Amino acid sequence: MSQPETIPVKPEIAANALVDRARYGDMARRAAENPEAFWAEESKRITWMTPPTRIKNVTFTGNVSIKWFEDGVLNASANCLDRHLATRGDQVAIIWEGDDPGEQKHVTYRELHAEVCRMANVLKSLGVRKGDRVTVYMPMIVEAAVAILACARIGAVHSVVFGGFSPDSLANRIQDCDSSVLITADEGRRGGRKVPLKANVDAAAKSCPMLKKVVVVKATGGQVDMQDGRDVWYHEAAATMPLDCPPEPMNAEDPLFILYTSGSTGKPKGVLHTTGGYMVWASFTHQYVFDYHDGEVYWCTADVGWVTGHTYIVYGPLANGATTLMFEGIPNYPDTSRFWQVVDKHKVNIFYTAPTAIRALMRDGEGPVKKTSRASLRVLGSVGEPINPEAWLWYYRVVGDQRCPIVDTWWQTETGGILISALPGAIDQKPGSATLPLPGVKPVLVDGDGNVLEGATEGNLCLADSWPGQMRTVYGDHERFIQTYFSTFRGFYFSGDGARRDEDGYYWITGRVDDVINVSGHRMGTAEVESALVAHAKVAEAAVVGFPHDIKGQGIYAYVTLVAGEEPTEELRKELVMWVRKEIGPIAAPDAIQWAPGLPKTRSGKIMRRILRKIAANETDSLGDTSTLADPAVVDDLVRNRMA
Ligand code: WT7
Q1: Among 217, 305, 433, 503, which residue has the least CB neighbours within 10 Å?
Q2: Domain for residue 602, yes or no?
Q3: Which residue's alpha carbon is nearest to atom 19 within ligand 1?
Q4: Substitution site in 160, 286, 359, 523 for ligand 1 pocket (most atoms within 8 Å of beta carbon)
Q5: How far is residue 524's CA from residue 533's CA, in Å, rounded to a whole number?
Q6: Would you say the CB of residue 263 lies under 6 angstroms from ligand 1?
Q7: Which pLDDT band, with edges at 50, 70 and 90, does 582 fall under?
Q8: Domain identity same for 442 and 551
Q9: Same domain? 392 vs 526
Q10: How far is CA 278 from CA 151, 489, 546, in A?
C-alpha cells in the first residue's frame, strides 16, 4: 500500500493551541503513569458541591463495576448554567438556526438558566422526582436542550428518543425504562416538512400505560389533540412557575441519562451514563479535541437524539461556557450551500459533522461551498463512521481551504465522548485515520482468541482500561452489559469495531465486526430490521446485511423469503420498505430487497451472513467455501438474482 499523505500540525494553530505536541506527550505520559492523579486534577474543571476524594474504582472482570469520583457531589445543569452566570451571564449560550433560513434565536446563559429552571419546576409540579425517568421526544429546538438540562437539574434521568423514530420504537423505549413523563412538541420541522411528533406520542401512548403526563411545547402551532388529564401545554404550565429552581445535589455515580442504541442482537439497549465521570469527559474532550477557545462559536450538526448531540451540542460546550449552535434543518434545504451559509451568518469557528453529509455535498461540486466565505472556520471535525480519504481531502481542501485541521473523532454511545482523535495543535493528520488515543485512553487490538497484538497490525478494537465517560451499565440489565462488552475478550471493553494500527501507532477504524450496520453514521442492528420484516404477514424469513453505499457509508440490504403462495411483486417490495419505515423509522428503511426462495444455512440452521454480505457487495467471485451449506444451490440463485 502506498504511504498515505500526512498533513502536519500547522505552526499557527500549534502556537495558540491549548494542547501542543509537547503538552500532549506530557498529558499522555502522566495519564498513563498515574491515572488517579491525572483525573483528580482534571476533575477540577467541574464545579463540585463536594469534591471527590476517591477517583477511580473499576473492575472489567466478574460482575464488572465502573466508578469514578464516587464520593463527589455535583449537578450537571449547574455546571452548564449557574457557574457561568457571574462571568458570562450575557454571553450567548445557544444560537438557534431554524429550518427556515429566516428564523434564528440567540439565548444567553442567563436566559437559558431561567428557562431551564421554569421547565424543571413544571416537571416537579407534575410529580417528577430524583431518579425518575423522563422521555424527551423533541425536534431540534432550544426547548430540547432546556428539557435535557431541566431533567438534570432535578435529578431526573432523561431518555432522549430521536424524533425520527416511529411510535413503536418510542413506545419500546418508554416501556423499557418505565417512564411516566414525556416531553415533546406539537411538530418538528425538517427540510420544509413537518414531523408529527405529538401524533406519534399519542400512538405510542396506547401501549404505554405507565405514561401519565405529556408536556407539549408549541413549536409550529400545528393542530394536535390534547388528552385531558394527561397532556399539558408547556407554555401554560410554565407561565406560573418561578424562575428559580435549586439544582439537586447528585452523587457522581447517580444516573444522568439513558440513551438507547442498537446492538447485534435483541432490542436496543439502554446505555446508562452517570453524572460525574460523564461531565468531566464531556468537558475535557470538547475543550481539547476542538481546541475550544473562549468566545468561539462552535457548531455540531448532530441531532440531540443521538449521543453526539448530548455530549457535543449540550453538555460539553455548555460545561465549557461555549456558544453552541443548534440547527433545526438539514444540509440540503433550501439548497446544498446551507451549511456554509450558516457558517458565514453566525461566524462559526468550529464545525463538526458526519462523513455522510460531506459525501452528499461533494456530489454537488465545489460551487455551493465556494460561493461562501467560511473565513471564520478554524477547526473541522468528523464523526459517526470511517471517513474515506477522498471525502476527508474534499472537506480539507474545499470546505477548510487547507487552513483548518480536521479532527476525525472515533467514539460510541457507550464511550460517552471521544476516545481516539487528532488534536488540532498536537497531532499530525492522515486522511482516513482517527489517529491517536486521547490522554488516558488505552486502545488495544486483539485477535479472535483474545491475544493482544503489538505494533503495526489489525484486529478487534478494545479498551484495556476505563475512562471517566464510560457507560456504567445497560439500564435494568447488568448481565447484558457484561455479556455484550466484557465477555468476548476477558478483561477488556470490546467496542464491536475492527481497526488497523500503522507503523506510527495511528488507528484506522475499519468498521463494525458484528451484526451492526452503520447507515449515515447511525447504528442499526440487522436483527431489528429482520424482526420488523418478519412481523409482516407475507414474510416468512428475512436476513439483513450492510453493503457499501456511496453516500450512506453502508446501506441496508434485505433478503426476504415470502410465505408460500405470496407473489414477489414490485408493489410488495415497496410495501415492505414502507413497513420497516413505519415499524422502526426512516433510517431503517432497506435500500434493497432481494427475494430469496431460500437462505444459505449451515446444516445446523445458522444463516451464513458472510455469503450474504459478499453477494450484497457484488463480490460474488470471492464467496469462499460454500460446501458446508445445507443446500449450496441457494447461493447460485441468490447470485443470479442479485439486485443491481
Ligand atoms: C459506532 C458508534 C460516536 C457518536 C456517533 C455514533 C462508528 C463513530 C467513527 C469514526 C470510524 C466511527 C463505529 C462505532 N464510528 N465514529 N470517527 N471513525 N467509525 O455513535 O451510534 O454509538 O455508533 O460508529 O463503528 O462503533 P454510535
Answers
A1: 503
A2: yes
A3: 385
A4: 523
A5: 14
A6: no
A7: very high
A8: no
A9: no
A10: 16, 25, 32
Domain match, 350 and 385 both: yes
Same domain, 329 and 458: yes
Q: How confident is the model at residue 4 (pLDDT cuts 50, 70, 90)?
A: low
Domain boundary among 451, 467, 500: 500
Of the candidates 302, 426, 351, the one whose C-alpha atom is nearest the C-alpha of residue 13 is 426
* 413 annotated binding-site participant: yes
Give the integer Cα–Cα distance in Å for 257 and 277.
13
- Upper half-sphere CA count for residue 562 (Cβ side, 13 Å): 13
CA dist 568 and 576 (Å) reads 11
Does 509 map to a domain?
no
What b/e string do you get for 169-180 counting C-beta neighbours within 10 Å, with b at 16 or more? bbbbbbbbbebb
The crossing angle, in degrees rounded to 10, of helices 167-176 and 197-205 is 60
**In this structure, is residue 513 part of a structural domain?**
no
Q: What is the CATH number of the domain that holds 574?
A: 3.30.300.30
CA geometry: angle 491, 494, 496, nearest 5 deg: 165
Instruction: Output phi, psi for 485, to 5 deg.
Output: -110, -20
| CA dihedral over 502, 488, 588, 618, signed as positive or negative | positive
237 plus 292 within the same structural domain: yes
Q: Measured on CA atoms in the order 531, 534, 540, 541, is the torsion positive or negative?
A: negative
Instruction: Decide if 302 contacts 354 (C-beta within 8 A).
Output: yes
Say yes or no: CB of residue 386 within 6 Å of ligand 1: yes
Tens digit of pLDDT for each residue in 64-99?
Answer: 999 999 999 999 999 999 999 999 999 999 999 999
Residue 1 is predicted with a pLDDT of: 44
d(CA 286, CA 315): 9
| 307 Cβ inside 6 Å of ligand 1 | yes
Considering the domain architecture, whether residues 613 and 544 belong to the same structural domain is answered as yes
pLDDT at 337 over 90: yes
Q: In sequence order, what are the beta bridge partners of 172? A: none
Residues 484 and 529 in one domain: no
Mean pLDDT, residues 598-611 taken together: 90
Asked whether residue 512 is assigned to any structural domain, the reply reads no
Last-in-domain residue among 500, 534, 549: 500
Q: Is the same domain home to 605 and 467?
A: no
φ, ψ of residue 264 to 5 degrees: the values are -80, -20
Q: What CATH number does residue 209 fall under?
A: 3.40.50.12780
Lookup result for grid cell 506510527: 504
Cα 495 to averaged position of ligand 1 atoms, centre (Å) = 10
CB-CB neighbours of 563 under 10 Å: 11
Nearest C-alpha neighbor of 532 from the set 586, 602, 610, 475:
586
Q: How far is the CA of 244 from the centre of ligand 1 (A)?
A: 38
Domain count, the chain: 2
Cα angle vertex 184, ends 109, 82, to 5°? 20
Question: Ligand 1: which atom is nearest the Cα of residue 495?
Answer: 26
d(CA 277, CA 314): 16
Q: What is the pTM of this model?
A: 0.97
Report which protein residue has its CA nearest ligand 1's atom 13: 385
Q: For residue range 394-437, what is the model confidence (pLDDT) as tens digits? A: 999 999 999 999 999 999 999 999 999 999 999 999 999 999 99
Say which residues have a Cβ less than 8 Å from residue 613's Cβ, sequence separation at least 6. Answer: 545, 546, 547
| Residues above pLDDT 70, as percent of the chain | 99
pLDDT for 109-159, tens place per residue?
Answer: 999 999 999 999 999 999 999 999 999 999 999 999 999 999 999 999 999
ipTM above 0.95, yes or no: yes
